[in-house]
Write a structure and sequence with these properties.
By secondary structure, the chain is mainly α. The protein has a domain of 106 residues. Helices cover 63% and strands 0% of the residues. The chain has 29 helices and no strands. α3 runs antiparallel to α4, α16 packs parallel to α18 and α17 runs parallel beside α19. It starts with 24 loop residues before the first helix and ends in a 24-residue tail after the last helix. The relative contact order is 0.10.
């Protein structure tokens, strides 16, 4: 989130100042790395260590590879299981190519991995996290040979033969003690590993081949699926259609993987492979849409994932396949499972705001907008806020691509926001308004900011105002921040909102608040707000907390390392965005996402 520059137009109630800016590479090398190493040597909570490892992953860089490798390899085999697992993902993100052999051996449970870890068998959870690390390592590599090798290794995991108890059938009897088996099954199972491999394959689209014919039946057994894009996708299609061979969780994530690959394929194809790309898109759409029919009686988890996947694949042009996708999503939004309806609204917004490759790239915008407005005004209770959020997502994406927004949407969002009574509904509308940035609904949010008593709802109103980039609301957010000492969540999001709006004074104000309060909870929330804003003037205060040996396992110290990790990330989008976008969160596995915050998508 950029908060620097001299071209900010500050609204009334504030004075124009320049913010010091985000961390540079020299800031990270000079200030962050020494503090990070010192913090790890001091020690800390389990969350602190995991966040430290992920900070290394976010920093990356060849100049840091050797020292990061030392720490990450150490934590592969020391500390709690969740730390070991985090180290595997971080190793793939930070310095994956040079450590790929180790990650692959762990994921494949080889003798060398067992020797390295000092175990007779590699725990299933550890194997799954290593598979995610493999995916990240190859996703960030431009080496075609390495990418093909990784896809091949991940496919070996998908095809591994397992016994009834969630272990390989050739496992020796002496390793099958009841206590050990129960522990492994409790922590992770075969689905965890296969989902990790399936998701990771979707991060590594291979190149098109001129010599491979495209098959779109979804049933063919494909040889050499690690050779090119066509073989990769058609191989994975059978993992979705073979409902007796693969469990619902794996098939649900196969849908997302196929959609990610189709989306990547459309970008890679160009005119040369446009026909092949479209054929594959048609074939994948066919098997996904077929799974939604009543006579197929597919598990709801699989159907919901198919809906999400269609949203990832479709676009706004007038080609037959895209009109078909939008039609099916409109149908799913009007009938069927309540969760599926909500997913379909967001999926529609994605298709309606993705530029197509046909002659009329924005042909579907009007029909999608009309459908979402219909659900916003006449939808059943509980659906309206999802329609509002979908309109926000659609507006944000269209605006980012230079498309003009329809003012009728802003008026509709202002209307539903004004009459909104439920905190969760107000939260959804606030984010939607912020994403679109319309002037009229923003005025409605300003009124809600002072009138709303629920802390969570009020925090989202503040966040929506920040997302709107309307600097005329800075004074109201400053007043909210001043009055939020007893509301840590409001304080965090108000500070973040002001940072988004370029209010330079907010960084100094938050640092001062953090230093004068005695509440651990408030200090932690302010530290996170500073991390979200990303201004380097807060680095000294955060580093001081990191080096504090008074209470190594304090909540504030956990927040400080997390904030420094946010500030140090050199990527244009968060590292986990590629996983989070298009994932059916309800098709969770213990190693992907869980309520104990120990899955790969729980890492920050």
């Amino acid at each position: 989130m950029l908060t620097h520059g001299s071209d900010w137009e500050i609204g009334k109630g504030a004075t124009a100042q320049n913010v010091a800016g985000r961390l540079t590479s020299s800031d990270i090398q000079r200030d962050v790395l020494p503090a990070l190493k010192a913090g790890i040597q001091i020690g800390g909570s389990e969350d602190f260590i995991r966040s430290s490892l992920m900070t290394m992953a976010k920093i990356g860089g060849e100049q840091n590879a050797d020292q990061f490798e030392f720490f990450l390899k150490y934590y592969l085999n020391n500390g709690q299981a969740t730390i070991n697992e985090t180290a595997a993902v971080a190793l793939g993100l930070a310095c994956g190519h040079q450590n790929y052999d180790l990650l692959a051996s762990i994921a494949l449970d080889t003798e060398s991995a067992q020797k390295f870890l000092g175990r007779k068998k590699v725990p299933m959870g550890m194997r799954a996290f290593a598979a995610y690390g493999m995916g990240f390592a190859a996703a960030h590599s431009g080496n075609d040979s390495f990418r093909r090798r990784t896809v091949g290794d991940l496919i070996k995991i998908l095809e591994e033969d397992f016994g009834e108890a969630g272990k390989p059938v050739d496992e020796r009897d002496e390793d099958r003690g009841e206590d050990n088996e129960a522990l492994l099954l409790k922590e992770a199972n075969v689905s965890d590993l296969r989902v990790a491999a399936m998701v990771s394959v979707g991060l590594i689209p291979l190149r098109f081949s001129e010599t491979v014919d495209v098959c779109i039946c979804g049933e063919c057994v494909v040889e050499d699926p690690d050779t090119c894009f066509q073989s990769q996708v058609t191989y994975l299609m059978r993992h979705f259609t073979a409902d007796e061979e693969f469990d619902a969780q794996v098939r649900a994530h196969a849908a997302s993987t196929l959609a990610r690959l189709v989306l990547a394929g459309a970008e890679m194809a160009g005119e040369r492979f446009h026909e092949a790309s479209n054929q594959i898109k048609l074939g994948v759409s066919d098997i996904l849409i077929e799974s939604l029919s009543k006579n197929r009686k597919q598990p709801q988890m699989v159907q919901n994932s198919a809906i999400i996947a269609l949203g990832l694949m479709g676009d706004a042009d007038d080609e037959d396949v895209d009109r078909w996708i939008r039609s099916e999503l409109r149908s799913a939004a009007s009938k069927g499972d309540p969760i599926g309806k909500r997913f379909a609204l967001i999926a529609l917004a994605e298709t309606g705001s993705r530029r197509g490759q046909g002659e009329t790239p924005w042909a579907g915008v009007h029909e999608v907008r009309t459908e979402l407005l219909r659900h916003l005004s006449r939808g059943k209770q509980g659906v309206e806020p999802w329609a509002g959020l979908a309109l926000g997502v659609m507006g944000y994406q269209l605006k980012a691509q230079g498309q003009e927004l329809d003012s009728s949407v802003d008026k509709a969002l202002a209307r539903v926001t004004k009459k909104s009574r439920k905190p969760e509904d107000l939260g959804a509308y606030s984010v939607a308004i912020g994403l679109r940035g319309g002037e009229k609904p923003v005025e409605e949010l300003v009124e809600k900011l002072s009138a709303t008593k629920d802390e969570t709802a009020k925090s989202y109103v503040a966040l929506g105002l920040g997302l709107s980039r309307n600097k005329a609301v800075i004074k109201e957010l400053q007043d909210t921040l001043e009055a939020s000492d007893r509301e840590p969540l409001v304080q965090t999001r108000s500070g973040l909102a002001l940072g988004l709006l370029g209010d330079a004074a907010v960084v100094d104000e938050l640092i001062e608040r953090m230093q004068r309060t005695h509440s651990e909870e408030k200090k932690a929330s302010i530290a996170l707000a500073l991390g979200y804003i990303g201004d380097k003037r807060s680095l000294d205060a955060l580093v001081e907390i990191l080096r504090d040996e008074t209470d190594p396992e304090s909540e504030v110290r956990d927040a400080a390392i997390l904030a420094i990790g946010y500030m140090s990330d050199r990527r244009s989008t968060p590292w986990r965005a590629v996983l989070a976008h298009g994932t059916n969160y309800l098709a969770e596995t213990k190693t992907l996402l869980n309520g104990k915050n120990t899955g790969v998508l729980n890492l920050k």
